[in-house]
Structures are given as structure tokens and as C-alpha cells.
């Protein structure tokens, strides 16, 4: 059976498209560089707030084998989607403030300093009815999963017609069913 | 290529170019009738289709505003998207999966067969299986349906092979790769299936039947069919004698034109068709054109739908190959011992990662959900298509508070599940999971109904005028030169995918209408 290689292939074009310039170079050159020190990839949130949003993004849709860059790109996409609406320009920045307030109320500390995912998820549940949560959660569904370079990680091959379809590429090659 | 003058009152105007409208338009042209087919959407050809779920969706899907109400989950998760259908030349025949099943004999007589179901507006069709048999045969030949006319069935992909193994193990008997209007060998000038796997996004190889590259070009070649894309019909006009005289439509730039007509046939799918009639209200027809019975928009049906996806220990790659790759038919029988009337088909389905994330469990988040997506390439899936009950309160109405860009009220789609629908879906979910568990599924998940791809019943066929909107020919009871030619004619929904029946009805209607025109009876 033809299976997919799920290791991320370094594709320069994709990589630079989905991360901002300085952060991209820094990430490649010095992987040990603390995330905090990277230049801000978001326009409407401070670097600290951005980190909170990235963490929230991953807590909403955790895939342990997906690098942070996918989540950062997704949040940037969500921000881009809100940019044209004057009512929503500060939704993310305000949302982080309310998220930290909810975290402090429930767990005594700001969101991104809560160590356990399950505790952070409990905080998220308390803001589930808010427009900020809706924007992030709803936005992530497309912003995260529409990144083509993430698809191999899920074993999905994307566009097929230009490769002649799957007629000769394993459309019926399952080999483990009982005879 | 034909072009007809706006003031040519001898043309038949067909609204919509999908399975119903496209077939009717071609068939009339073949019989010597001049036809103007007005399609709201743009014209894309095979090479324009996109093997990317969201990009394709934005290219082809009907995205003009609609609203929803009722207890159905679609109203909560997708309040402005009650249906996934197409706004483009070819209509939803560009998007459909190709499943081409005839109604079962008893399904034409749902009221007689099932008895009175409280809360359901069950009714027998005014036609039956014997009458429809030759038209089904003609449709199957026209569309190149596998399993008929000596056309071999398609080979089964991985998704089907799992379904087949599990279903056989459970004792199901009628399990095969389906009656599909997808070429399994070259036919009718079109190639055979390459198992591309993006059937829903328009078939780039043309193996799947769609009016876009079959009926429409054949009709155009006669010199009697003019298809005008980007032409959205807004009103149907009539004279003091209650005869339709033409339609008003908006072109690409929003400029409105009046096309005269001898006959108007409406095939805008089951949300826009009733909406058009309702928006064509006048002093003579205060409740909407041809709506003296009050039935226009009522009895909206969408099949019980629902999906089961299963995770296996080893890879499946369900996305490789045809989306609807096979079927289990045993449960489509009528067997009230199961706790409901009517039946359902079990058909494979596959979604790509983007749509899986959006539709597997709308609104879900967190590890329970992502662990499912992490197993994406180990997944098989099926779609449960069952007969849902017509209910007068499930209906398309005009929403006075939301207007489209032409200033016209948009359609609101209201739907509540009937207890029969709930019982059928519950049973179907259980059986679907059982099939997968029989071959070792480690986990199964139930997916709620998607935005409806089967939209039926809102201009229903009836023997008596007070019970429906159209007669046995799809001719409206109240207006002799107004016809309905799409799935909104359906009196009941049956368990089967509707397209073959829509095409068969259109072929039959064309034959009847051409006769009426020739004899000056309309």
C-alpha cells in the first residue's frame, strides 16, 4: 500500500510565505532562540499577546506533530480576516486581555503561564460564548487546516487531477483487509 | 450558437441549467423548440475546476444570502448556508457525486405504503413506477449509468473495500460499487474515470455526467438553445388572463432585462424555485405565483443524511478515488419493525482535510476532535441517505428582514426533524458503525447532517390542486404555461439520491411539453 511520508519537507517558498521575514530567518538559524525574542508577526497584538494567541490556537486544535509555525500562520490569517472590519480591529488584543483575566480568575495566573493544557482548556471553556472565542475557533478551522504544507502530516495528498488522478496511484491498494 | 431576441415571445424560457433545467432545455431544442436558458451563475468548463475544497467552493457554490430557522443543527452551525449547491452553468450536476438510483416502486406511493404518519404530510405521487420506467431507462442511457445498459460498474476504492468487507460480514446482501453516472469506459465522447477524488469540485476529466458538458453543448449544437450565464431571474410576469408572459432577470452588471416567453420552466433547485414564485406575487396571485394552494415552499425535504466515519489501525486513504464509491442497499427497504417508515441507503463518502475539519463535528475543538483529524489517513466514511418526512412546517419562505443585492427578500429555510427522521438516523448511525466495527474499526464518529445537497419538495406534485403546486407533468395547477422542472416537484423524498429521477422527469416533461406546444395547447 502506498503510504505518505509525513515528515515535513522544507520548502523555502512555503516557509517564507507563512512566517514573517525576521522570525523565519531566526527560526531557521537558531532554533534554540527563545520564542519571546522573535520579532512580532502580528500587527494588532504585542509580542507577548501574540504568544498568548499562538498558545490558545494550539490549545483549540492541538496537533502535537505540527510545528508552531503552522499555528502562528493561522493566527496571522485570522488577524488578516479581521483587519478590514473597523469594529473588529482590536478584537484579538482585547480578547487576550479578557482571556488573561479569565485565567487569573480561574487559575490565578495569566493564560500562557498556566502549565497544564487541561487547565488552559478549562479557562477557554469559560469564554466559549464570547465573540473573541468564536472568531478564534471558527477562524482556526480554515486558517489552520487550509495550509497545504500541513496536509502531508495528516496523510492527505491534495490536488490530484494533474497527476492523473489515483487510478495508478493506489486508489484501491488496501492490503490489510481479511481475505 | 443561437441568440434570441428579448422580445421573442415564442421561446421557452428555462430558469436554471442543472440536471432538470439543462436536460429540459436540450431535450426541447432537440425536438425543434427554441429555448433561452437563463443561468444565474457563470460558465466554467472542466479545465476551470479546482482540486481544492475551499477554493472550489468559492468558485461554484451558491453563496447568495439565505437564512435558516428551526431546530435542525444546520441552523445553528451554518445559519446562512442551508445548502451546498451550485451557482454555475450545469448547476448542481457539476458538484454531484454521480449516484443514479431509481425510486423503489413503493416509494411513489408513500402515503398508501406507510399509512398516516402523524405530523407528516405524506402523499402519494400522481405518477407511479410503471409510468416512470421508460423515462428512467432513457435517463440511464443518456447519463451512462454503470450497472445499466451493459455499462460495467466502476472498480471499488479503499473506502468501498472496507464498506464491502464490513457489510458482507454483517450479512448485508446488496453491496456493490453503485449505479453511477461516471464512465467506467470511454463513452459519449467522454473519457473514463481516473479516480481523481474531487468529484464534488467538478469532474476535471468529464467522466462524470454533468449537463455542463453533455446536454448543454448538444442543445447548443442544434442552433435552438441559447444559454445565458450570469443571468439571475428576479420575477416571472403574467398578463391579466393569468398567463405567464416572460421573466425579468439581472445580468452580470445588475442591469435588468425582460425576456418574453411562451412558456416558463423553473429549475432553480428547491430553495430558489419557490422563492422565485413567492417573489413573483401580484394582485392576481397575492400569495405568490401559482400559489393558490399555499403549498409553494412547503414540505421542504433534505433526506435524513448524517455520516459515520471510522478509524482503523492501518492506513486507508479514503480520499483516493471517487467520493461515492459504493453502496449497501439492504436498509432502503420499508420495514417498520426497525421503528420507522421508509428506508435509507448507505453510500461511501470522503472529505479532504479542510472539509473534514469544518464538517465532521461543526463547532468541536480540543483533543477529542484533533485526535480524529490526526487519524485522517486511517479513516473510512459513509453517508446515510434516507427518506425524510414531508412536513408542512418545513418550508422555504421569504425573509422580510434580509434582502439580496437586488432588494428582494431572501429565502429562509425552516426545518425540524420529524420523530421518524430521528429514529431512522439513529438506526442508520448504529448500523454504519457496526459495519466498520465488523472489520476492526478502533473508533467511530457520528457526523451530523451537512448543509443540504439534496433539496426537495417545495413545489410538490399532487393530483389535486389544493394539495400541491404542480400536476403530474410538473405543470403548475394554476398557471398553464408555467412549469417546474427540478427536485422541488418531489411529493416525497424516497431513500435514493434525486438526480436520476429529476432527469427522468425532465425528459418526460420535455416530451409532454413539446406535444402541448405543437398542438397549441399551451
Topology of this protein?
The complex is a heterodimer of chains A (179) and B (522).
Chain A: H1 12-18, H2 21-29, H3 47-60, H4 68-83, H5 91-107, H6 117-126, H7 131-145
Helix pairs in contact in A: 3-4, 3-5, 4-7, 5-6, 5-7
Chain B: E1 12-15, H1 19-30, E2 35-38, H2 53-60, E3 67-69, H3 73-77, H4 110-114, H5 129-143, H6 158-170, E4 175-176, H7 215-221, E5 225-228, E6 232-238, E7 244-250, E8 256-260, E9 263-266, H8 269-278, E10 307-311, E11 327-328, E12 344-348, H9 353-359, H10 367-374, E13 379-386, E14 395-403, E15 409-414, H11 419-437, E16 443-447, E17 482-484, H12 499-518
Which descriptors apply to this entry?
heterodimer, A: 179 residues, mainly alpha, B: 522 residues, 12 helices
Walk me through this protein's architecture.
The complex is a heterodimer of chains A (179) and B (522). By secondary structure, chain A is mostly helical. Chain A contains seven helices and no strands. Residues 14-39 of chain A have low confidence and may be disordered. The longest helix of chain A is centred in the middle third of the chain and has 17 residues, at 91-107. Chain B has 522 residues and is an alpha/beta fold. The longest helix of chain B is centred in the C-terminal third of the chain and has 20 residues, at 499-518. In chain B, strand 7 (244-250) and strand 8 form a beta hairpin. A six-stranded antiparallel sheet of chain B has the order 4-11-12-13-10-16, with helices on one face. A five-stranded parallel sheet of chain B has the order 5-2-1-9-17. Chain B has a three-stranded mixed sheet with strand order 3-15-14. The A-B interface holds A 1-4, 59-63, 65, 117, 121, 137, 140-142, 144-146, 150-151, 154-162, 164-167, 169-174, 176-178 and B 49, 51-52, 54, 155-158, 160-162, 165, 193-198, 204-205, 314-317, 319-321, 352-354, 356-358, 363, 365-367, 369-370, 373-374, 376-378, 439.
Amino acid at each position: 500500500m502506498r503510504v505518505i511520508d509525513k515528515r515535513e519537507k522544507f520548502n523555502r517558498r512555503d516557509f517564507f510565505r507563512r512566517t514573517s521575514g525576521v522570525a523565519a530567518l531566526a527560526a531557521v538559524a537558531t532554533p534554540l532562540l527563545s520564542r519571546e525574542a522573535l520579532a512580532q508577526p502580528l500587527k494588532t497584538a504585542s509580542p507577548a499577546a501574540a504568544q498568548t494567541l499562538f498558545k490558545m490556537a494550539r490549545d483549540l486544535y492541538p496537533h502535537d506533530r505540527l510545528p508552531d509555525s503552522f499555528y502562528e500562520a493561522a493566527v496571522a490569517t485570522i488577524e488578516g480576516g479581521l483587519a478590514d472590519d473597523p469594529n473588529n480591529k482590536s478584537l484579538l488584543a482585547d480578547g487576550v486581555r479578557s482571556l488573561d483575566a479569565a485565567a487569573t480568575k480561574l487559575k490565578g495566573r495569566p493564560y500562557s503561564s498556566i502549565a497544564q493544557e487541561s487547565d488552559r482548556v478549562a479557562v477557554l471553556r469559560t469564554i466559549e460564548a464570547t465573540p473573541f472565542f468564536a472568531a478564534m475557533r471558527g477562524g482556526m478551522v480554515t486558517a489552520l487546516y487550509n495550509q497545504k504544507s500541513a496536509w502531508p502530516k495528516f496523510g492527505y495528498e491534495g490536488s490530484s487531477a494533474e497527476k492523473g488522478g489515483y487510478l495508478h496511484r493506489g486508489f484501491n491498494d488496501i492490503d490489510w483487509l481479511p481475505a | 450558437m443561437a441568440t434570441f431576441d428579448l422580445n421573442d415571445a415564442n421561446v421557452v424560457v428555462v430558469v436554471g441549467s442543472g440536471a432538470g433545467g439543462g436536460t429540459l432545455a436540450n431535450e426541447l431544442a432537440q425536438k425543434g423548440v427554441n429555448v433561452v436558458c437563463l443561468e444565474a451563475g457563470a460558465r466554467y468548463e472542466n479545465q476551470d475546476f479546482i482540486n481544492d475544497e475551499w477554493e472550489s467552493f468559492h468558485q461554484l457554490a451558491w453563496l447568495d444570502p439565505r437564512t435558516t430557522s428551526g431546530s435542525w443543527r444546520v441552523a445553528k452551525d451554518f445559519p446562512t448556508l442551508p445548502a451546498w449547491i451550485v451557482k454555475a452553468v450545469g448547476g448542481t450536476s457539476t458538484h454531484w457525486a454521480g449516484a443514479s438510483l431509481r425510486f423503489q416502486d413503493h416509494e411513489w406511493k408513500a402515503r398508501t405504503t406507510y399509512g398516516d404518519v402523524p405530523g407528516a404530510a405524506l402523499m402519494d405521487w400522481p405518477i407511479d413506477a410503471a409510468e416512470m420506467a421508460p423515462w428512467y431507462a432513457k435517463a440511464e442511457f443518456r447519463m451512462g449509468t454503470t450497472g445499466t445498459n451493459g455499462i460495467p460498474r466502476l472498480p471499488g476504492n479503499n473506502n468501498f473495500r472496507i464498506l464491502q468487507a464490513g457489510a458482507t460480514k454483517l450479512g448485508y446482501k446488496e453491496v456493490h460499487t453503485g449505479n453511477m453516472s461516471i464512465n467506467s469506459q470511454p463513452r459519449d465522447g467522454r473519457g473514463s474515470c481516473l479516480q481523481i477524488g474531487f468529484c464534488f469540485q467538478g469532474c476535471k476529466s468529464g467522466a462524470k455526467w454533468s449537463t455542463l458538458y453533455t446536454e448543454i453543448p448538444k442543445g447548443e449544437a442544434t442552433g435552438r438553445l441559447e444559454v445565458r450565464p450570469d443571468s439571475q431571474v428576479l420575477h416571472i410576469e403574467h398578463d391579466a388572463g393569468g398567463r405567464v408572459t416572460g421573466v425579468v432577470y439581472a445580468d452580470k452588471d445588475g442591469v435588468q432585462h425582460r425576456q418574453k416567453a411562451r412558456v416558463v420552466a423553473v429549475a432553480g433547485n428547491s430553495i430558489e424555485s419557490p422563492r422565485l414564485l413567492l417573489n413573483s406575487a401580484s394582485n392576481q396571485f397575492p400569495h405568490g405565483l401559482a400559489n393558490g394552494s399555499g403549498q409553494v415552499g412547503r414540505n421542504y425535504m433534505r433526506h435524513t443524511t448524517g455520516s459515520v466515519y471510522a478509524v482503523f489501525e492501518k492506513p486507508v486513504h479514503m480520499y483516493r478515488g471517487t467520493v461515492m464509491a459504493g453502496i449497501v442497499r439492504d436498509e432502503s427497504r420499508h420495514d417498520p419493525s426497525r421503528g420507522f417508515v421508509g428506508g435509507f441507503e448507505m453510500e461511501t463518502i470522503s472529505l479532504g482535510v479542510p472539509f473534514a475539519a469544518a464538517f465532521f463535528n461543526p463547532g468541536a475543538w480540543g483533543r477529542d476532535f484533533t485526535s480524529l483529524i490526526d487519524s485522517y489517513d486511517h479513516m473510512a466514511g459513509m453517508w446515510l441517505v434516507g427518506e425524510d418526512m414531508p412536513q408542512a412546517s418545513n418550508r422555504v419562505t421569504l425573509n422580510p428582514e434580509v434582502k439580496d443585492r437586488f432588494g428582494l427578500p431572501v429565502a429562509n429555510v425552516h426545518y425540524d426533524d420529524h420523530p421518524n427522521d430521528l429514529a431512522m438516523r439513529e438506526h442508520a448511525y448504529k448500523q454504519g458503525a457496526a459495519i466498520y466495527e465488523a472489520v476492526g474499526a478502533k473508533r467511530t464518529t457520528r457526523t451530523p447532517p451537512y448543509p443540504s445537497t439534496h433539496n426537495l419538495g417545495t413545489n410538490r406534485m399532487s393530483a389535486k390542486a389544493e394539495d400541491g403546486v404542480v400536476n403530474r407533468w410538473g405543470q403548475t395547477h394554476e398557471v398553464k404555461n408555467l412549469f417546474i422542472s427540478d427536485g422541488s416537484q418531489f411529493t416525497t423524498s424516497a431513500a435514493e439520491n434525486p438526480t436520476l429521477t429529476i432527469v427522468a422527469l425532465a425528459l418526460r416533461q420535455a416530451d409532454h411539453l413539446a406535444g402541448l406546444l405543437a398542438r397549441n395547447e399551451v
